[in-house]
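Hey, resending since the last one bounced:
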Amino acid sequence: MTTCLAGRRAGRLQVRLRDATPDDAETIGRIQTDAIRRLGPSAYSAPECESWAAGLHPQRYRDKMAAGDRFRLAVDMDGWPLGVVWRTGAEVIGLYVDPDWSRRGIGAMLLADVEAAIRAEGHDRIGIGAALSGLHFYARHGYRHIGTYPWTTRGGRVLQACRLEKPLIAGATT
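The structure tokens again:
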């Protein structure tokens, strides 16, 4: 899948999606860490964001891939990584866009891709444990807030997170 996205800071950006490999683990960690540190403060304090970003070592992603988690990367036509999404079954575990490329449709493209994959496997709904900083994004894409819960970060702080769901088959309700 290749899509042209209009950008605020540049003309048109061509983006394609590809499966991530263990060789991408360092890049995935960089994207996630940068997004947490630069976009997370819209909902959390700087110390909370640092606690959330703690422990994001490349081996963590390699282990998740080996355990069956499915990762997809959004890359530009030169192969530069712009965003990542990963899931286990019908549960999105993470969706992060490089903050330099946010608000250009890359997150929406990744979300649509993961939704299509989950739908193709026959699931009738998708679940996400989302940070408060992502609530507006997911609401714009049809996700319903199910509840708020305490989440302990890798750095040991307890943050509020939200359980979100979206039906994937017409007529399904959350």
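The longest helix spans residues 25-39.

Sorry for the duplicate.
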